[in-house]
Amino acid sequence: MPMDDEAGSELHSADAEQNSEPMSEEMLRNAYHLSRLRSSSVEIREKGSERLKEELAKAQRELKLKDEECEKLSKVREQLEQELEELTASLFEEAHKMVREANTKQATAEKKLKEAQGKIDVLLAEVTALKTLVITSTPSSPNRELHPQLQIPSKAVFKKGHGRNKSMSNAIVTATTQNSQLQPMNKDGREINLILYDEFLAWKEEPTLDKVCPFLERIYQEDIGPCLSFAKHELTEAVQAAVESNTLSIEPAVVQALPVVKASAIECGGPNGWRAEVVTKCALSGLSRTCKHRIKLGDSGSYFYISPSCRSRITAVCNFLTYIRYIQQGLVRQDVEQMYWEVMKLRKEMSVAKLGYYTEEL
Question: Bridge partners of 293?
Fold first, then answer.
């Protein structure tokens, strides 16, 4: 190093001077201290350079670690970006799927709404009819059926034999009915069956549609069961279930449905009118009949053509169950005896229908 060379030259010059002339003790001491200072400065520089090298190596190692960490972070970033893209794609796909499902549900809901509105219209018509039946006589709006004397008199028809005043006989029968508790009678000469009446009263206290109660159990056994018993047993069970759950619908047979069932249409009514009469096998009885109506069970898209007799039997049972539901819901505003006779009337219609009698519709 340069400093060593200078120290050596100085020592050499000092030796030369010593050889030339003797040196003093003080000069030797100064020369010694000077050499020590120079050697210590060399050591300090060497240690400083080593320390700098160590710090440089440490800094290089830290930079390498930082580079590795940056590389890892960049990989994580790329992975996150890829996952974000996949998530965005899946979210868009899920959103489209939800939109499709919502559109499907909306279409189904609109269809059910239309069906419900149709059922509501039918129920409103039935309620209107029931209100007409259950309306009571008031001074402002008298019921002419309960007061025959208020009816408009028609032309007098003279008959041979004895004639009686109907209003007077009705008043006598009504008074007899009110006074008699064991065997109440009404104006038509009907007599209440006390066993059936007691069963109806017990049911009226806690109205239910459970077939286990004595009132409905008897009617199911004597009327509803035989009335809904058809030759096709599998379809019979489905019809009974639909009638009980109030999901059976009956509609007239239309011309568009004729090619589907391979039926024939008969022209009638003259040149100004047409009527579709489907001549095919009745789905319930299995007999070839003129089927003017068809039934649908629940939400099923299948239709079954039925004969007028089968329609009359189903309608009779539906009328009875509808009236029973109205009583249970508290929609009937009649007294108990009127309800009882209306129930007996509906049972009579079921009894007549199950024997095969029906009213021919034009």
Answer: 252, 306
pLDDT of amino acid 15: 55
Decide: 290 and 277 in contact? Cβ < 8 Å.
yes
What is the DSSP annotation of 206-222? S----TTSHHHHHHIII
State if pTM tops 0.70.
Answer: no
Spatial distance between the Cα atoms of 129 and 353, rounded to a whole number of angstroms: 22
Q: Which residue has the higher pLDDT, 299 or 217?
A: 217
- On the question of pLDDT at 147 being above 50, the answer is no
Q: What is the dihedral of CA 177, 180, 184, 190, to 10 degrees?
A: -60
Tokens matching residue 228: 């809904």
- DSSP secondary structure of 259-292: HHHT-B----S-TT-----EEEE-TTT--EEEE-
- For the packed helices 194-205 and 336-354, what is the interaxial angle rounded to 10 degrees? 120
User: By the 8 A CB rule, do 3 and 42 touch?
Assistant: yes
158-190 burial by CB neighbour count: b if 16+ within 10 A, else e? Answer: eeeeeeeeeeeebeeeeeebeeeeeebebeeee
Give the three-state DSSP class for 43: helix
The token pair at 345 is 């009337």
Which residues is 289 bridged to in the sheet? 280
pLDDT, position 223 = 93
Phi, psi of 139 (to 5 degrees): -60, -35
Q: What is the pLDDT of residues 201-225, one digit of tens each?
A: 999 999 988 888 999 999 999 999 9
CA dist 317 and 220 (Å) reads 10
Q: Which of 165, 189, 196, 158 is nearest to 339 (CA)?
A: 196
Is the pLDDT confidence value at 157 over 70?
no
As a whole number of angstroms, the distance between CA 39 and CA 359 comes to 138
Check: CB of residue 295 under 8 Å from CB of residue 239: yes
Dist CA 349 CA 12 (whole Å): 150
Instruction: Spell out the alpha helix ranges (H) of 135-150.
Output: none
